[in-house]
Design brief:
Elements: E1 6-10, H1 22-25, E2 29-33, H2 36-42, E3 48-51, H3 56-62, E4 71-74, H4 85-89, E5 93-95, H5 102-118, H6 120-130, E6 146-150, H7 154-165, E7 169-173, E8 178-180, E9 184-187, H8 192-197, E10 201-204, H9 218-223, E11 229-232, H10 241-249, E12 255-258, E13 278-280, H11 291-307, E14 316-317, E15 322-323
Length: 325
C-alpha cells in the first residue's frame, strides 16, 4: 500500500496543468516539472512520473538519480519516444494510453481509404488549385476490396472492424501465425510479402522497434500491386521513406496516406508534399476533441490503482517496445 506517492507531471507547470488533472491531486503529491533541468532534482525521491509533454532525453539524463521511481505513465500509445536502454533494463513499470486513440485513428484510415476510392482527394485538389469541374473520374468501391493490416494491435483491430462493416475483406500480419475473430487470418512475418501482394489497401499500424524499423522497404513496396494504396499511422521509422517515394513516383503502388514520417515535421523539401497520389497529414490522426482529458483520465485511473497497490492498466513490454494485454 503506497501512501501519498510523490508523482512528477513532466512537461507541465503549476500554471499550465494538464486538463482535468484535479482528481490526481487528492491521490498524490503532484510535482509539475516543466523541463529536463528541473527534473534532475525532482526525480530523486519521486515514486512515479507522468510523461505528459516531455522528451525522452530529459528522463534518460536524470534517470540515474531516481532512487524510488517505480512507474512511468506515457501520454501516448506508442512508447518509442520514451523508452531508453536503462529504463528497459530496470524494474520500473511503464504504462501507455491504450484505449484513447485507436478508434479515432481507425476513422482517419477509413476516411483516407474513402478519399482514394472516390477520388475525393483529387477533387479537392482541383477545387483549390484549378477551380475546375472534372466529371467522369473513375470511381471504385471499398466493398469487395482487401485490407491487409500490418500490426494487428488495437489500432489495426479497430480499423478492421470498420472495414468489415463496409464490405471489405481483411487479413493481417503479426508476430505469429494465428486465427483471429476480427482480423481473420493473421500471418507470421515471413508471410508479409505474400499478403502485400493480395492487398488493395495496406495499413501500417506498427510500433517502432528493432524488428520493425524500415520493414516497409523497396522489396515490400515491390511486392504490392500497382493499384494498391499504403497508409501509415504507426511510426515513420517503420518505412524506408526513399523507397516509398520511389514506389509512388514509379507507380509501383497507386498512392499513400501518411500521418507519420521519418522526420517530423515533414521537411518542406520532401517530394511527398507535391505528389498528387499522396495525402500528407501532420501526425494528428489520433487527435480529437477531448483527447487530452481522456489521456489524463487514464493517468488518474492508474494513479488510483498505484496508490492502492492494485495492478496497473495498459502495461508495456519495455523489452519488446509496445503495450500488451
Amino acid at each position: 500500500m503506497v501512501s501519498r506517492p510523490i508523482v512528477i507531471v513532466l512537461g507541465a507547470a503549476d500554471d499550465d496543468r494538464p486538463p482535468s488533472i484535479e482528481p490526481a491531486i487528492e491521490l498524490a503529491d503532484l510535482r509539475f516539472v516543466p523541463d529536463g533541468d528541473a527534473l534532475a532534482d525532482a526525480i530523486v525521491d519521486a515514486d512515479a512520473l507522468f510523461f505528459w509533454r516531455a522528451q525522452k532525453a530529459w528522463v534518460e539524463e536524470a534517470f540515474g538519480r531516481a532512487a524510488r521511481l517505480r512507474w512511468i505513465q506515457s501520454a501516448s500509445d506508442g512508447v518509442d519516444g520514451l523508452l531508453f536502454p536503462a529504463l528497459v533494463a530496470s524494474d520500473v513499470t511503464v504504462t501507455n494510453a491504450r484505449g484513447v486513440f485507436e478508434d479515432p485513428i481507425a476513422e482517419w484510415v477509413i476516411a483516407a481509404m474513402g478519399a482514394f476510392v472516390t477520388g475525393l482527394h483529387a477533387t479537392i485538389a482541383d477545387q483549390v488549385r484549378a477551380g475546375g469541374w472534372h466529371d467522369g473520374r473513375h470511381r471504385e468501391r471499398l466493398a469487395g476490396q482487401r485490407l491487409v493490416v500490418v500490426g494487428p494491435g488495437p489500432i489495426g483491430r479497430a480499423t478492421a472492424v470498420r472495414a468489415l462493416a463496409l464490405g471489405m475483406t481483411v487479413e493481417a500480419v503479426g508476430r505469429s501465425a494465428r486465427g483471429d475473430e476480427v482480423l481473420g487470418v493473421v500471418h507470421a512475418p515471413d508471410g508479409l510479402h505474400d499478403a502485400l501482394g493480395r492487398a488493395d489497401h495496406v495499413l501500417d499500424a506498427l510500433p517502432l522497434t528493432d524488428a520493425t524499423r524500415r520493414l516497409f522497404d523497396a522489396k515490400a513496396f515491390g511486392a504490392m500491386r500497382p493499384t494498391a494504396r499504403f497508409y501509415n499511422v504507426g511510426r515513420g521509422g517503420t518505412v524506408d521513406e526513399n523507397a516509398l517515394t520511389d514506389a509512388l513516383r514509379d507507380r509501383t503502388i497507386a498512392g499513400a496516406a501518411l500521418d507519420v514520417f521519418e522526420q517530423e515535421p515533414l521537411p518542406p523539401t520532401s517530394p511527398l508534399w507535391t505528389m498528387p497520389n499522396v495525402i500528407v497529414s501532420p501526425h494528428i490522426c489520433g487527435d480529437f476533441e477531448g483527447w487530452e482529458e481522456a489521456v489524463v483520465g487514464v493517468f488518474v485511473d492508474n494513479l488510483r490503482r498505484f496508490a492502492s497497490g492494485q495492478s496497473l492498466r495498459n502495461p508495456v513490454d519495455a523489452a519488446a517496445g509496445f503495450g500488451v494485454g
